[in-house]
Amino acid sequence: MSDHHVTTTLAEGVLTLRMTRLDKKNALTQAMYTAMAETIEAAALDTEVRVLLITGDASCFCAGNDLMDFMNSAPTPGLSPVERFMRALAGFEKPAVAAVCGVAVGIGVTMLLHCDLVYCGEKTKLNMPFVGLGICPEFASSYILPRLMGHVRAAELLMLGEPFTAEIALRYGLVNALLPNDEVEAKALEKAQQLAGLAPKAMKVTKMLLKKWSASATLEALAFEASHFIPMLKQPEAIESITAFMQKRKPDYRKLA
Ligand code: COA
Fold first, then answer.
1. Collapsing DSSP states into helix, strand and coil, what is residue 19?
2. pLDDT of 1 higher than 60
3. Is the pTM value of this prediction over 0.90?
């Protein structure tokens, strides 16, 4: 299936969801979120799908939300396409694996926090530049990251918002293993197939148990962050930051209150 820069293939119980908007570094549009949400929702109900594998290609995973889309059709309270996608992923009861190369920015990192296994190219650059865009963390990342790596590391990544290396992602527990770019997808597929061959009910219960004790807090964090994130997108700081990116210049906050 191919739709809106998202393709899917099902083989041996593994549904591969591939982002294919490579000329824009897989920046995600409303249409892509909807296609990804529909894919995951259908996968949840399809007994032939045992495992979800999310990837881009050996050069690029995802540069985050399309910044033009942020300006033109920002998410609104309620089930926006991005929220539908992230809720589908966060609530997916079967294993989700990610193969990450090149760049992973913004929601390109946030979505990894809702996957079960993550394989990463050695040269991948990751970034959560929310503050630099005049916005805040999203989809429970402000809850999950400090639990995963401790406050000071999470604060370093979220407050400074600088690109960080794959080695740091490994050290901080964001990814399982680093590989040369051209081996990442094969390794992720191998592990996904391994998961797909195991007892599906035992797998589901195991995933449920792993997430059970943080599930309600994750959903609460997701909604609370959205109550900040959505209005912030319309504030002068975000408008200046996103306009600056589009105009390929540094943002200038001097005139903002
Ligand atoms: N939204 C819209 N367009 C984006 C984009 C995004 N998030 N990320 C990249 N693009 C576009 C660029 O504008 C460029 O378009 P152009 O060829 O028409 O000029 C194209 O994708 C290639 O990007 P480029 O910046 O030239 O690639 P790079 O390898 O030098 O840098 C990134 C890659 C991801 C580091 C850089 O593009 C970037 O910082 N993007 C913004 C990431 C971001 O802030 N995401 C939102 C997080 S909430």
1. strand
2. no
3. yes
